[in-house]
Specification:
This protein is an alpha/beta fold. Bound molecules: pyridoxal-5'-phosphate.
């Protein structure tokens, strides 16, 4: 039997993806300032960024980065355990632990590496890893890497999660969930999941990549918002590359958790530490995220504004109270067409298609940030209503959930932005 050509096999997968309208297209942003980016020479209002608090371009972060680079150099030069662990890393870990009210925190170079490291360290072959179906890819991959039995429950279905935990009563068990789901903006039922884990003797892990900085007292995340501590959620992971505007991630929990990860998490041990200057930038971000509450307040206003405006225009919404406000359109081709129409109108909102989201649930993933203005949100809604109206064949069949909407009636009419991007 002839050995298959790996590159040919890859090319065939690529061609298949192209046939399904599912190719990811790489585009280069040539300028970025606040909520505006330049793509292919055109300025667009960016509704695709995870920089929820508007910190990535904040001068305090740039100053901290530049100052620390002059003092510490650019690279950490080694792994944490081999001389790469510098004073800024130590200070950042202490401040992250204090912010999230956990005894200790441990830095990783990215969220992906943090999740792989945690899951491959805690789980062994034969253990059960129970996960929400809509969890981020790196949580799923972590369970597979660990050789655990991966069981996935329907989105936010606590009863199903509890049933899955009960299937392997004698195995080690970890339930892992996103705190805020990256493509849906929904928030996990953390208190109920914590109760289910306690009842089953399982450990709960929360990936709060999209909750940190946005939810909870002083932006300390979804777990703080749910009033849960280290007992309820022993493993808390969050990233620094979204609301904190930098790069990297951390895991926070007990002394035993962090000591163990420091020894055994291969994605922490066998990799170069983050640049110390980046740790200094993250410390500056943490202070702003924590104490400039107006950024979260503004986000909340924009989220309400977006949802009211969408309802007024008959645009179906997902059940999200977070800055991630997807508009599910169904077919991939339709999502691409709506995204193109939005771009023509001056807005960057990428189409997210399978396999990133389930089959038949392609969407526009709209994200709001503290840098947007209400007029920009209004203009986006107008353009969205027009774009959806132009290809009305596949509207989202799910009902609009207004359970969390304020009682005030929607504003009549749309406010036009004076300055349209060229
Ligand atoms: C829920 C979630 N977890 C983890 C990650 C990975 O984090 P990072 O980009 O730092 O690798 C992401 C996104 O990138 C995410 O959305």
């Amino acid at each position: 039997m002839a050995r298959p050509s790996l590159l040919q096999r890859l090319a065939e997968r690529h061609a298949q993806r192209a046939r399904g309208d599912l190719l990811r297209r790489l585009r280069t942003v040539t300028q970025a300032e606040a909520a505006r980016i330049v793509l292919d020479g055109r300025e667009l209002i960016n509704f695709a960024s995870n920089d929820y608090l508007g910190l990535a371009g904040h001068p305090a972060l740039a100053d901290a980065l530049a100052g620390a680079a002059l003092r510490w150099g650019v690279g950490a030069t080694a792994a944490h355990g081999l001389g790469g662990h510098r004073a800024p890393h130590a200070a950042l870990e202490a401040e992250l632990a204090e912010w999230t009210q956990r005894p200790r925190a441990l830095l990783f170079s990215s969220g992906w590496m943090a999740n792989l490291g945690v899951l491959a360290t805690l789980l062994e072959a034969g253990d059960a890893c129970v996960q929400d179906k809509l969890n981020h890819a790196c949580l799923l991959d972590g369970a597979t890497l660990a050789g655990a039995t991966l069981r996935r429950y329907p989105h936010r279905d606590v009863a199903a999660a509890a049933r899955q935990l009960a299937l392997d009563p004698d195995a080690g068990a970890l339930l892992a969930t996103d705190g805020v789901f990256s493509m849906d903006g929904t928030v996990a039922p953390l208190r109920e999941l914590a109760d289910a884990c306690t009842a089953a003797g399982a450990t709960l892990m929360v990936d709060d990549a999209h909750g940190i900085g946005v939810l909870g007292h002083e932006g300390a995340g979804s777990v703080r918002e749910a009033g849960l501590g280290v007992d309820g959620v022993p493993v808390y992971m969050a990233t620094l590359g979204k609301a904190l505007g930098t790069l990297g991630a951390f895991v926070a929990g007990s002394e035993a958790l962090v000591d163990g990860l420091r020894q055994f998490a291969r994605t922490h041990v066998f990799t170069t530490a983050l640049p110390p200057a980046l740790a200094e930038a993250a410390r500056a971000a943490l202070r702003i995220a924590r104490f400039e509450a107006w950024r979260r307040d503004k986000l909340a206003v924009l989220v309400r504004h977006f949802r009211r405006g969408a309802v007024a225009r008959g645009i179906a919404l997902a059940d999200s109270r977070t800055p991630i406000q997807p508009v599910v359109v169904g077919a991939s081709a339709r999502a691409v067409a709506v995204a193109a129409a939005l771009e023509a109108a001056g807005f960057h909102v990428p189409a997210v298609r399978p396999p990133t989201v389930p089959e038949g649930a392609a969407r526009l993933r709209i994200t709001l940030t503290a840098l947007h203005g209400e007029a920009e949100v209004e203009a986006l809604l107008d353009a969205l209503a027009r774009a959806l109206g132009q290809s009305p064949d596949a509207t989202d069949p799910r009902p609009v959930d207004l359970a969390r909407e304020p009682r005030r009636p929607p504003r009549a009419g749309a406010v036009r932005v004076r300055r349209r991007p060229s």
